[in-house]
């Protein structure tokens, strides 16, 4: 019985933890933006390109040596396109990042970036289709600090004249009329290009970046609050279980103690009845007068002092 109860409460605790994780993932921390590091993304895949389907991604590189790989990103919908924007770009002259507007690293490339490429020169890159392929090669030595940080976002342009009514933005529409996934808002990454997905325009809490509750960040505060609620639920459940078990054990103990007491009382009643039948009751013995004490009950001869002792006083129980 005790083992079954422990198993039951273990399942309850596990369900509470899974529920809290589900709330964290799809509630306060809903975030479909993905982070990739080029070295781990292309590890051991020099000749086989990687395919990733994304709504948004942050791709970073930091002083990789002897790297040669290709990775292809795809949108969720064929109606979407990709927007690529560099937040950092510092390549060595022997390193090349080539971007292709398609699903393969062949044919005419869109840009070929190297040491002479700067963020301002490159600007924002837009694809014509729903695929983009990056081919990155480095030599045996890269200076410290070389690399890039690339923001990739799947979007729909709602200003296009051929956009029909059923293809209008049903997610988040940026100020620049780009339609992106609602899950990419308020995640600290500028996916719109004009940063409107990180401001009050996207209903972000305290868009100035100083959002804190009791000195803690909003995400950390919500996490701690959820953990506290789960712990309280578990504690209350354990307390209720202990109280119920104590009450049940107390009732069982009282029932177990009442049975011997009833048996003793019954035995005493039978013994009293038997004794009364044989020797008479206590009241009967007290009401009966004792027999006279044998001998001379008159005054002693000689006229001495006589003591009168009642006969009842000579009766001993």
TrEMBL record:
Residue intervals passing through the bilayer: 213-244
Organism whose genome encodes this protein: Ornithodoros turicata
Biased composition annotated in UniProt, kind: Pro residues: 289-302
SMART domains xref list: LDLa (SM00192)
Chain spans, region Disordered: 278-304
Disulfide bonds: 42-69, 174-192
Protein name: Putative low-density lipoprotein receptor domain class a
Signal peptide limits: 1-30
Keyword set, alphabetical order: Disulfide bond, Lipoprotein, Membrane, Receptor, Signal, Transmembrane, Transmembrane helix
Residue ranges constituting the CUB domain according to the UniProt record: 42-155
